[in-house]
TrEMBL record:
It comes from Marinihelvus fidelis. In the N-terminal section; belongs to the lyase 1 family. Argininosuccinate lyase subfamily. Belongs to the lyase 1 family. Argininosuccinate lyase subfamily. Pathway: Amino-acid biosynthesis; L-arginine biosynthesis; L-arginine from L-ornithine and carbamoyl phosphate: step 3/3. This is Argininosuccinate lyase. GO terms for biological process: L-arginine biosynthetic process via ornithine. Coiled coil: none annotated. Keywords: Amino-acid biosynthesis, Arginine biosynthesis, Cytoplasm, Lyase.
Length: 436
């Protein structure tokens, strides 16, 4: 490579190697995740240039085919995006020029690396948010299937980590299912919110060409244009932040499920047994069977939270493109890689874990039925506060309660006696049609 694509002849020597290394940062490595989207956007841009007469049909065909060849060679390892280039955008232009000669150099007509990276990031985020939604829906599906099959299994319910009232396995499963249905809905809504094409806004000022932006938008599958060139630059970081928020909602619930399972698998609880696939041993203690996978699932949210803070700290910027925006890329790619890797494990874990029904029933102490008693006394006509005090006074002498009766009579909508699983299943089915 003769030098950066922005290098001008006779314009001075430019930055030295150390400064260039600093300027490039992680771009080349990170762009390995984005270059496929960059190729797709470049092919659409070429088609647009042909439409307005900047490229001939033969030139456009050569460029589109050349880009597809590069895609295949990157996938096979025959071609590698490495430190010889500033970034993936530079690599594509350089490779096309090497392969096609002067025609290759025409690919960048009418665009800037600014709108080039912006469109690649939006395509990436749409892809990852769709994957996030799909994983959340798969998780919810596993939970709802088990909730229907295990609806009436009693287990203790907790507040403040203290035994509170009899609950059911069905309610625990359905509660987490509803959370992941919400997470899927949020991921889809976020995908649709950022579904706008910035390609054709160039460096933030437009270009003196009648670019076929609508045609390119449609070819890339965006639902609308990102109209204003200035906003195309100002939106960078903003859309990434919203995408991270959707991811964080899912990893928050992932962490909560993992925390529950971490507690339930302890000897003190002994409510759940995890499959061997999710456990390891100790290097020194032969007796240990550690739920390491569950513990690391808890940790995944920390990566996402750190990325959100890192991203937000960069965005105190004036209007227009600033090189600081390059630094928004690493936290976003890092967070989606870690978050989706963790979330992808959850459906299998939830499908394979086993309940210890005996331990859960044994943990239902008589005092946990006091709330049921207070409601029963209120139904007899006593003011609730009086019924509450009477139930409290009778706790010491209470016998073991009937868990099955307690659960079946808890019929407020959504409670163990009326889980409304069909409503959750209908929401999930609706989201599946939207995602398709």
């Amino acid at each position: 490579m003769s030098g950066p694509i922005w290098k001008k002849d006779g314009a001075g020597k430019g930055p030295d190697a150390a400064v260039m290394d600093f300027l490039a940062g992680e771009d080349v490595v990170l762009d390995r995740q984005l270059i496929g989207f960059d190729i797709t956007a470049s092919q659409a841009h070429v088609a647009g240039l042909e439409t307005i007469g900047v490229l001939s049909a033969d030139e456009a065909r050569q460029l589109v085919d050349g880009l597809e060849t590069i895609r295949g060679e990157l996938a096979s390892g025959e071609r590698v995006l490495n430190a010889a280039f500033e970034d993936g955008h530079s690599a594509l232009e350089t490779w096309l020029t090497e392969d096609l000669g002067a025609v290759g150099g025409k690919v960048h007509t009418g665009r800037s690396r600014n709108d080039q990276v912006a469109v690649a990031m939006r395509l990436y985020l749409k892809d990852r948010l769709a994957r996030l939604a799909g994983t959340c829906m798969e998780t919810a599906g596993v939970l709802l299937k088990r909730a229907a099959a295990e609806a009436d299994i009693p287990m203790p319910g907790y507040t403040h980590l203290q035994r509170a009232m009899p609950a059911s396995v069905g309610m625990w499963l359905a509660g987490h299912a509803e959370a992941f249905i919400d997470n899927a809905a949020l991921a889809i809504a976020t995908r649709d919110w950022l579904d706008a094409s910035p390609l054709g806004t160039a460096s933030g000022f437009g270009v003196n060409l009648p670019l076929a932006r609508e045609q390119v938008r449609e070819q890339l599958g965006f639902s609308r244009l990102l109209v204003n060139p200035q906003y195309a630059q100002n939106s960078r970081g903003k859309v990434e932040g919203q995408a991270l928020s959707a991811l964080a909602a899912a990893t928050t619930d992932l962490r909560r499920v993992a925390w529950d399972l971490s507690l339930f698998t302890t000897s003190e609880f002994d409510f759940v047994s995890l499959p061997d696939d999710f456990c390891t041993g100790s290097s020194i203690m032969p007796n240990k069977r550690n739920p390491d996978a569950v513990e690391l699932l808890r940790a995944a949210h920390g990566v996402v939270t750190g990325a959100r803070v890192e991203l937000d700290s960069i965005l105190s910027l004036p209007s227009g493109y600033q090189r600081d925006l390059q630094a928004t890329k690493p936290p976003v790619l890092r967070a989606f890689a870690a978050g989706l890797q963790a979330l992808d494990l959850l459906p299998g874990l939830l499908a394979a874990m086993e309940w210890n029904t005996g331990a859960m029933e044994a943990a239902l102490s008589p005092d946990m039925f006091a709330t049921d008693l207070s409601v029963e006394l209120a139904l007899e006509g006593k003011p609730f506060r009086e019924a509450y005090r009477e139930a409290a006074a009778r706790i010491a002498g209470m016998d073991a309660g009937d868990a099955a009766k307690s659960l079946s009579e808890r019929v407020s909508p959504g409670a163990p006696g009326a889980l409304l699983l069909e409503q959750l299943q209908a929401r999930l089915a609706h989201l599946e049609t939207i995602l398709k």
